[in-house]
Design a protein that fits this description.
The complex is a heterodimer of chains A (185) and B (152). With 185 residues, chain A is mainly α. Chain A contains eight helices and no strands. The chains are: A mainly alpha (185), B mainly alpha (152). Chains A and B meet through α2, α3, α5, α6 and α8 of A and α1, α2 and α3 of B.
Chain lengths: 185, 152
């Protein structure tokens, strides 16, 4: 039986190839990079802002900044990490400009009974109690279902460190929820 | 087992709380919203192509092209001659067999001229090539010039 050629999706060009193409004058390669990193950047911004729409704005702002500064990027292999840093700054700027307050005072909003809405709110509060770096890992992992390898490329830390950070963050979340009366965890 | 169940429940809670639907990047909207930044990318493309055109235009100039070619040929000739200084070639029987200007300016013939009579012979040969080529109109095409240089 003759072997048929396997038809699959077109080969994914590595980031570094796309970056070189952008620098030598191919704007379409930049939109490809944006498409590729958009979910991760939204996740990072969302972890800082706590709002999906603002997070999308921050990610888009980050891409705009990256479009201008890309030729200045020295280590092209660290593009994802560089972009994540720009995105964090964009999120910080949004917080500063919109005076977005995500303080612990919101805890008073929680209802006594663990209804669906209050569960979500409590989880959100629990997330807001985490450190920024722990929250980022949680968002990247659950938002886009990114692998440890992909998270490692974005955050610039080892997969072991990500695993540890994720486990500690989940333990803290579980403790917080338990204290708030959600018995299962 | 309980720990696994708890983990799963926690995973579900987190997913529900942070709205994990994958965001889609809308490039057209982004281009409209960040028009200036997108133009930076586009102008970079134009800049790159302009540089390429400029380089091409420099080489398009016939005089520059001939000068560069002559210089390269001379440099190679001298380099070859100096590379084998001890080697003496009996040049008494060498007769000029090259005819066209292009043939007169080849590395081999310039090298032979140098061995025959030093730098003066090279100069003579270059002059001979220019004489043979004769005066050319300003608007001559490269194709025509090459054809004339080859004696065709």
């Amino acid at each position: 039986m003759p072997l048929l050629p396997i038809k699959g999706p077109p080969a994914r060009r590595p980031d570094i190839v796309l970056i070189e193409a952008v620098i030598s004058g191919d704007p379409d390669s930049f939109t490809e990079l944006c498409r590729r990193h958009y979910p991760a950047m939204v996740a990072i911004a969302h972890s800082a802002l706590g709002d999906r729409h603002l997070a999308e704005d921050a990610a888009q702002q980050a891409f705009a900044k990256a479009a201008e500064k890309l030729p200045q990027l020295k280590k092209k292999s660290q593009f994802a990490g560089w972009l994540a840093a720009i995105c964090r700054n964009a999120a910080r700027d949004i917080v500063r400009n919109t005076k977005l307050l995500r303080s612990a005072n919101d805890v008073s909003m929680i209802a006594a009974e663990p209804r669906e809405e209050s569960v979500n709110e409590t989880v959100k509060e629990a997330l807001s109690k985490l450190s920024a770096s722990a929250r980022e890992v949680i968002f990247l992992r659950y938002y886009d279902g990114m692998s440890y390898e992909q998270i490692s490329a974005v955050l610039g830390i080892s997969e072991q460190a990500i695993n540890g950070r994720l486990r500690r963050a989940k333990r803290k979340l579980a403790d917080y929820l338990r204290r708030k009366g959600f018995g299962k965890v | 087992m309980n720990k696994q169940k708890d983990d799963k429940w926690l995973d579900e809670l987190i997913c529900r709380a942070i709205n994990t639907t994958k965001p889609q990047f809308n490039s057209e909207k982004w281009k409209q919203k960040y028009h200036k930044e997108f133009q930076t990318l586009v102008s970079r493309a134009e800049k790159t192509s302009k540089v390429a055109v400029q380089r091409f235009n420099i080489l398009k100039n016939t005089i520059t092209k001939l000068t560069v070619a002559a210089l390269i040929i001379l440099a190679i000739g001298f380099f070859v001659a100096h590379l084998v200084p001890g080697e003496k070639v009996d040049t008494t029987n060498i007769t000029t067999v090259t005819k066209s200007p292009a043939e007169l300016l080849t590395v081999a013939s310039l090298n032979m001229a140098y061995r025959r009579g030093g730098i003066k012979a090279v100069e003579q040969q270059c002059e001979e090539a220019i004489e043979k080529l004769g005066p050319q109109p300003d608007k001559i095409t490269i194709k025509e010039l090459l054809a004339k240089s080859n004696g065709t």
